[in-house]
Amino acid sequence: MCGIAGIVGHEINNDGNRSAIKKMTDAMAHRGPNAEGVWNDEHCFLGHRRLSIIDLSEAGNQPFMSQNARYSMVYNGELYNYKELKLELQRAQHGLDELPYFFKTNTDTEVILAAYLRWGVECLQRFNGMFAFSIWDKQEQRLILVRDRLGVKPLYYHFKHNILSFASEIRALSSSGLIDKKINRNSVAEYLQYSTVHAPNTILQDVFMLMPGTILEYKQGVVTLSEWWNVNHYTKTKGDLTYKETCTKVNELLTAAVERRLVADVPFGAFLSGGIDSSAIVGLMSKLSSEKVQTFNVSFDESEFSEAKYAKQIAQKFNTQHHEIKLAPDDFLKQLPEALAAIDHPSGDGPNSYIVSKATKQAGITMALSGLGGDELFAGYDIFKRFHELENKAWLNLVPGFGRRLGGKLVAAKQKSVQGDKTAEILSLDHINGFHAYPVNRKLFNQKDYSSLLKETYNDNDFIKNIIKKSVTDKQHKLSRVSLFEIQTYMQNVLLRDADQMSMAVALEVRVPFLDYKLVEFALSIQDEYKYPHSPKKLLIDALGDLLPDTIVNRPKMGFTLPWKEWLKNDLKYFCEEQMVQFSKRNFVNREAVILLWNRFLNNDPKISWSRVWHIVVLNNWINSHGIEC
Hints:
CATH class of the largest domain: Alpha Beta
CATH superfamily of the largest domain: Aminohydrolase, N-terminal nucleophile (Ntn) domain
Distance between the termini: 33 Å
Shape: globular
């Protein structure tokens, strides 16, 4: 797990780019405290920061060279099946001219390079892991960038004047001096709508995120993109499995996914909230590991909804070495400035992830498993329930449009809440069903408040509409279609990005067993009647058998419960007000609308949630901290 960077082009200034690549790796020092490396030839510069997880010796340092010096590589991630591939590569291919590969290290890095030498880009189909890597072919003067199937590991790039630069973090690109640090106003509009910017776009103009399952090739000043895996291709039922057989298969795949992720040469553990997903991961880890599993739960004494008691139950059941890290709200506030400084791409949810990651790292852990992904695959979120309900209300389309719009206004007036406004917006749609309503349900701002904030109208809905258009399934897999939406929007562009930027800010690697591609492909192929007969995640619960106690299975779904609303009005009021006033003065923003939003929040308007204010505060603070031109 590391940070990578590179610059490639046929007309590059060597002295200038030596300085630039060093600035890029310096900007990502937090990602790799164990080693730093820089390599270059006439047309390519590669940089690397290393967090040692497998083969801790210096032999694993990067950039990594092929034995014939033709290929140079930088790599961020983990290849979980590298040992099996290594054995295959060490054998000759009978009947072919393939010779055994003689390894000089015990790293998965060398396995990736050896696999590429033997199979070319087809090697990707054999990989099971989370990764972002680059390989430079000196002979062909060709560079490829690759990102893993689900987008667990990030990779950003900039291409202008025939020069390609790339890095694991935006801050590395912006530190290089090679790019114009200009805000992307379309992206700001999207951020305000959905609390994130969806890849391939980023908050910066001309800086892009390589899409999951995609290869970027640079050759002779030309960049081409090609897809090597697409999550949308796996929503067809595989065979005629019974419900029991389906449960057995889910159990087998999840168990194998956890087992693959237990390979490490450093101390590791697991995040344990006490919910179904994290508890399942811990339970399977305990069954597979010969040593006590270390578990970590961050709790807040002041919260009446503390999950600590559930985490303790799981820790006791599986006899883990449990670490309950208690924080007072004041502790969180004290760490907030460093959490905001750690944000690489604006995110209102990021600080929570930072606090958990920092506490885990301070306990001596370098790698941790997470339950992220379980809700997306097994219909755990409320958005699946809302979809289910809307699909059963097709009769609403028989009501004339003016009648539905009037009904929506009445609902909004009566409820006086964010959800009331969303209901009104859904009722005003040309056609009402779960799919058309999805973008509305994922919005941070309702259409009216959002439109008033910006001086111009932006095409902020296009990305999600395109996802909906491409993610087509049959009638037996409607819930899998919602999973496709969640995976390609909220999960990839909020959860995974936050998990990476906040854990790597403290040099902690996070692995996600639920996103093992074999489990993802199978889960998407399961028909609705098995996945959601009457309650969320029933299939997953049944697949786990008696692994988890009823008190965990039937507990209410929770998350961190922090007094954000009170903080923004008291402890953080001066800071937030300053950021809101500054943002209101941006030349693309309606000043009066932003100030009105802030005042409505201070005056307890039920339609203005703290998260609407906080996301603007984080964005403005990020613009200031990174010297972004607006």
